[in-house]
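Many introductory courses stop at the sequence. We go one step further.
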Amino acid sequence: MRTQAQNTPVKQQEHLKKQRDILAYRMKKLSAKQVGFSKKTEELKTKIKKKYDDMKRVLDEDLRITLCQLDMEEEAMERAIEENIERCYHLTQDLDQQLAELSTQLEEVTETLKITDPELIQMDEFKNEQLLSLTINLLLFIRSQVPVTKKLFQSAQEVILNPDSAHPKLIISPTGDSATYTETWQEVPENTSRFDTTLNVISREGFKEGRNYWEVQVSEKTYWELGLTYPSIPRKGREEDCWLGRGPESWCVEFFNGDYTAWHNGASHELTHITGRTFQSIGVFSSSYGGLVCFLGADTMTPLYSFCTGTFTDALYQAICPGHDNQGTNWKPLLICDASRSAPIL
């Protein structure tokens, strides 16, 4: 009985030591898990911070593009106002010399006063309200990553090229959505609307009122011209008169071997700020509110150049020139894009 009594404390002591060892091991495991949790938390915080940095980068880039677009429109309106002031000044001098011929000058005075009316040059307030509304919806913007200005143009007009206006060295697709240069002079019917000295083609339908936006795919090309024109643009005769932008009837941007030039009424404007850049497609936006014609790099809605004419005096037609072969580097067609379904920028 005495031996059994002595064994009981020993067993209890061994049991307690065993329990202490178990607790020590458990504390070690808990410490390791604490370190693991801390590490995972830091990794999660780093990933979340990176996502917020990406969102800030996207928003900053879109803000830059949007502000640049507004600056281009403001510059175009200022140029138009300065030109109209100079026009009024010269007309005033002419009137002082020709008061005796007032009856024959009345029509010119009336037309000039109409063109230089300051009320005709105004901001497109409806578009600006849309811009502000779209800017507020930041969550939708971040998900789609489409620049805010792109959303304003997605109600684009369908453009169908008129084969009866195409130069005989242009092949117009059956659906009227592309123009391709060929060295072969095609057997096509002669008519008064066909260009016979420049590689131009214009749309079947024109438009007069409101806003209009369309896009042309220009990738892998080294030479092209595109823009808007009145139906009165010359189709025959001197080649220079029929080029887009060389007369008062049309506005265009020309691309040749890496250089961009904007043209209207024979005046050229070299776009040195985008020299060497290439775009997948070019967008053309026009608004009868102030006579605005704006060209953009449609990939990122980068403003290229804007004209502000004050008012349009006739219907406008879309016009493109795919250019000659340019020593074998320019065989790709110009393709009219469906601007309302343009893919978002990734």
